[in-house]
Amino acid sequence: MADLIVVLGWIGLYAPMALGAVGSVIGCSIAGQAAIGAMLDTETGHGRYIGVSAMPSSQVIFGIVVMFTLNRTVTLANGAGLFSVGVLAGLALMLSAIYQGQCCAAAIHAAKAKPEIFGLSVVPAAIVEGFAVFSFIFALVISGGIPQT
Amino acid sequence: MINRHFRYTLLMTSLPPQPVDLFSAKILPISRIQLDKRLSLLDADDAADLARIERLLHWSKMQEADDVNIVTHGHAEMALIRSEFLRQIVLWRLELRTLINALRRKHAGEILPLDQPYHGFGDRLQFIRRNWHKSDFGLGQSLPWLKQAWQLLSENKTLELDKLMLELNWKYYARLSLGHTFDFPAVVLYVLRWYVIDRWVSYDADRALLRFNELISAGMADVSLECEERP
């Protein structure tokens, strides 16, 4: 049981970065495909499509910061805490990146048909990003309460 | 699952937007050649399904046959479409065509022998056969457009009737496309709506040709009169 808790602790340590990266990969690929498709059909505005399609990449950066904040020697005392905070924060980051990618794809699709709504169409993606920021900040705050050894 | 819903993000965003109002369209948003180039992004199974749907629904892709053969072949082809959602779209359109065909035959004065089956698509064939004498085949409650279509047919307003049919198709496809943005059904619905726009735009061409012929006739009439007056 003790070994299992230590293993889970190590998983929790690495989970925010890994899950965040998975989410960013999926989110950026969805939005990136939309950007490339939109570029095939439009003469201008290519830069902003690429800019929007990169939005879901921030989750992996949040994940890296959370991972370094949680980084400590895993013991029986902190294994469960590291696992819980790491995995749950990672899941939140992963899902927010995927859904943000969907929002970005929809924004690109809509802005291609009606360029004047481009600014507004990005707002839902920014709102989704907000939830990733919440989970990032609270993971940082709560990691302070996990024993160092 | 995510991949399934977003398989054709690139394809769908590469297609020009279609108009909200069908009758405001003056030109096709994309030519067939360009559309086919973009559709080359479909995977083999989906491309086969789309070709099947086009063969079932569009006259230019159909082969001439009698009613029985069309229905038998249609059901066999429909069974090969993998998605139930897409099968329902095809069936809806074929049923619409069956009903309009029945209205036209009735308008032409055809008497339907009660001992023979009525060939067509959908669940309403019995209604058509039993209620042949009624202008809406007893389906007016569930399909209110039938009475309107019969009225237009009775008044020989064929263009208005075609516009009614195009509008029915357009609204049906628009409603279905709400839940589909970047998946295969979205691609199919885009192509089907492209056909509707193509049909409507070609009406404008027909009208222009008619007007052109009228002008030519008017111009030629003067010329011939002048020629006749010459000794």
Automatic annotation (TrEMBL), chain A:
Keywords: Membrane, Transmembrane, Transmembrane helix
Top-rank lineage group of the source organism: Bacteria
Domain (V-ATPase proteolipid subunit C-like): residue spans on this chain: 11-69, 84-142
TM ranges: 13-37, 49-70, 76-99, 120-146
Localization per record: Membrane
Pfam families cross-referenced by the UniProt entry: ATP-synt_C
Membrane-related topology note: Multi-pass membrane protein
Protein name: ATP synthase subunit C
From TrEMBL, chain B:
InterPro entries per the UniProt record, alphabetical: DUF2764
Domain of life: Bacteria
Any one Pfam family match given in the protein's UniProt record, by short name: DUF2764
Protein name in UniProt: DUF2764 family protein
